[in-house]
Design goal:
847 residues; alpha/beta; Hypothetical protein af1432; Rossmann fold; eight-stranded mixed beta sheet; six-stranded mixed beta sheet; 27 strands; 14% strand; antiviral defense; metal ion binding; nucleotide-binding; nuclease
Length: 847
Amino acid sequence: MATDSPLTRSRNAWGKSAAGGAETHHLAHHCADVAAVLIALLREPHWRARANAALGRELTDAETVCLGALAFLHDIGKLAPGFQAKAWPEGHGLLLRGHLECGWLWTNLPRPDALAGAAAQLFRGAETRPEEWLAAIFSHHGQPVQMPENGLARKAFPALDGYDWEAEEAVLGQALLAWFPEIRSNSLPPAEPAFLHFFAGLLTLADWVGSDRSAFPFVPEFTPGYWELAQARAAGRVAEIELGASPALRGPAGWGMISDHPSPRPAQEAVGRLPVSERLVLLESETGSGKTEAALWRLSALLEAGEVDALYFAVPTRAAARQIHGRINDALKRMFKEPPEAVLAIPGQAIAGEVRGRRLPDFKYLWDDGLSKPARWAAEHSARYLAARVAVGTVDQMALGGLQVKFAHLRGAALSRALLVIDEVHASDPYMTETQLAMVESHLALGGHVLLMSATLGAAARRRWRREAPADLASDSNLPYPAVWTSCGLQPIAAEPESGKSVSVRSHDGWSAREAANLALDAARRGARILVIRNTVSRAQETFNACRAVAPELLLAVNGIPTLHHSRFAAEDRALLDHAVEAAIGKDSPLGGRVVIGTQTLEQSLDLCADILITDLCPMDVLLQRIGRLHRHKRPRPEGFSEPQCIVLCPEDGLDALTRRAENGLGAYPGGPDLSGIYVDVPGLQATLDQIQTHPRWEIPRMNRQLVEAATHPDALDLLAEARGWQSYRQSVMGKATAEMQTAGLRLLDRSAPMVSPGGRVNCFPADEDIRTRLGEQGAIIELPSGTIGVFGAPIRRLALPALWSRGLTGEEVAEVFRTPEMMISVLDKAFTYGPEGLQRKGSDNA
């Protein structure tokens, strides 16, 4: 006996339990549920095709069943008394243990006839060590688990009165042989590393699906015929949560399915006519040229051809995701007979289609429309976003599949059946590009499809995405624009009739809040709708306050409250701000002078159509994005503003000082271990300013390629740095980029590497290391008291603090909220105010 408190009755092994152990699901049944889901997935054409690509050959039906039998063993560690005791009454005296650890320990028990010999049958003839497969199945909670010391095996599986784990093991072994008879004469496929990594992700998905009690009700006593029931339940669940075949399109995948416009625009036509055999497509086209609709047309063609059956639309920011999400939902209603609901892939929010969900204490969700649609399952946890039929979110959710982080295997496998669209690929820094590129290449290796889109991608970045050798400045500058890139190279896109705009661009020496406010108010008083974009929140707030002190009636307002647009608002208030900005200076906004002030949050995705743009100096690709919010649509303009105008605010004393200290988001902050700041590439900024001063009128999009290459091409920047004596600083910028790429390389998940080293150790993810999709510190998320009302009268739930303000905070602290009359928020010894200017730190500078 292993305990002084023997059990009073014989117990079955359970795989799932509830109500403190009063309700259980037999372990063999749970194992069957997961195995049945895995087999159901592998019998779906798209999952099977991705498995074949990972394996490098066709997976046979018998091998599929063998993989199901292997999945049946995923929770074998739950046999251990130390795990089973988690659902027993107190007093058993056992040391509680995790089932993954116990799974490894079970394999170390010196018993060749374990599981009635079934395990030996399964691994007989396998072309690799069993440890490789075991590492994959014991990764089903999201990451690999290291083998524990062999000497613990007997301690984890003691003899015990009232629970005979060996008898329960025999039940599982008999079930394995009866339910998977193919293992007697067939073996597992070769354990190629790429296939093992894919299998680990698919098993994690199957375990998550098969663990849902609403789909797999508990059956506590072992039932020999349960396998048939498990297969039926699995097939039904895979279909209803949209992991099976895609719904039918309304008709042929032509332009008419995407839009009411009589004919597609040139960029859309260029993508629409591409063969479905092209798996990596890069679309370079100006802002406002209809790239989103081009992506949807590509999706419909691939769906019709059976190449994909899902979509993940990735954008740089959460604000962009929210805006695109609505457009995608509207498009789905047009495309499908029974349209799926697009999931908004933003952590902390459960949104499917136009409906929001609220988490209940029992891990269930209450949806605003009162419905519990099974397909909303993917919206209820961030690790499942990529398993949605259609999801729209940030690039981070996709990139997490390429890093050594929990659920990376799940994300990679789940994404494999989808068309992956990455919008604005130019917006990523070297670290982010590396993490995204790794995931894109893994996706393509599984037979996936990718569409990259950008208005301002420089040649150096483009060649990295396409793994091409560098070329000289003249060659890259003379390439046609717009264009679409495929395996055949560049295909020029015809110029769009009357689509170009001639923009007057001028620099302004001086970038104080007062100067920006004076320029904006002067134009607004003449009836213009002004967009002001500052590089930092603090400078935007200063500019807002300068305008509000003189002419509050001309400012952007929400519910009558003058305000501005930046990242330091609660998500609920940001949604109101997004709507207000589009209403104020969007396509259909009324005539009349008004000023909208904000930061980078205004430079992409929102459908803005300002009469004049006032912006801080920034890199060329960013500047062109900002100019994309200027005269975006044909519409009436006030007198004097019929032509688009852009005023670029610059430091009065030139840019040389920015190589020694940062100001207004430009240059590098001094005193740090490396270059740190928002836009640190001063040679690139000077090149942008040179183009502004050399070319006072920009013909967009005809000059896009020339402008971008002049300010981003390595050859151009090397020459400029040499001319100005900035070689050392230029080397520092390049060194920073190289270091970021190397950092990314150390954190990537290598799907070509074995899961177990030659020495027999599992290749686990780094322990206790915070690996993220973006470099830099992360701020704390502060939960607000229930019932907190935000700036504009709507309830708000949480606020994100900048990293600099989060020192000493974990995010677990309780915030106190006071009205004095402004809202004050106290967290430990830190105090903040929250009002029309957004979140501000009390008593210090808000940079």
